[in-house]
Every structure is written in C-alpha cells, then in structure tokens.
Amino acid sequence: MPQTMQPVTPTPHDVLVNIHSEYGTAAALEARRLAEKYQKDFLSCEDIVSIMGIGRNNARQLMSSSSFPTIEVGNRKVVSVIAFTLWSLKSDNDHI
Fold it and tell me: Which residues pair with 76 in a beta bridge?
C-alpha cells in the first residue's frame, strides 16, 4: 500500500525565502518592515486603514472580498503581514 505524504507547513523563514526568490528582496524587506512597525504578524482592519490610507468602510469591504487573503480568528478577520505584502504586489502587478 503506497504511503501518503503529509503536507509540511512552511516556517516563517521558508515563506520569506520564497518571497525573496519570487518577488525579490524588496518584498521580503517590506513584510519584515510592516511586522516590526506594527509589532505583530497579523494585521487588523485598523492597520489596513493606516497602511493603505483608506476609510474604515473601504477596509472592511476589502477584507470581505474573496480576493483579499484574510483569515477569521473568532469573529474577527485579520490578514498576515506576508499575505498582505504578496497581495499588494500582485495587485500592483495586475494594474500595470
């Protein structure tokens, strides 16, 4: 009977290495900068308001969008700094 391999959860270091190889050093540095500035690995709606310079209603609408990489923690929606950085880069590239 063939053995099935269990999926391996990447470490934060592995994710940053992947960001570096796919999007360059600037993306990895931006993810690190945001994590250090906000002293957390997950961003709230208020953080998105601050980072993007948009209103609270627009931030909530964005976080409810299927294209935005949120996760639910209890009844709150948050986005990881790494996912936000990648989404931002992808979003910028889609509009070029």
Answer: 73
Domain that residue 66 falls in? 16-94
Q: pLDDT at position 35, please?
A: 94
Establish if 4 belongs to a structural domain.
no
Is residue 11 included in any domain, yes or no? Answer: no
Picking from 29, 60, 67, the residue whose alpha carbon sits closest to that of residue 44 is: 60
d(CA 27, CA 89): 8
The torsion region of residue 6 among left (phi > 0), alpha (psi -120 to 50) and beta comes to beta
Contact between residue 3 and residue 57 where contact means Cβ atoms under 8 Å apart: no
Whose tokens are 């931030």? That residue is 59
pLDDT digits (tens, 9 = 90+) for 10-48: 666 666 566 556 667 777 888 999 999 999 999 999 999
Q: Which residue has the higher pLDDT, 57 or 22?
A: 57
**For residue 2, is it within any domain?**
no
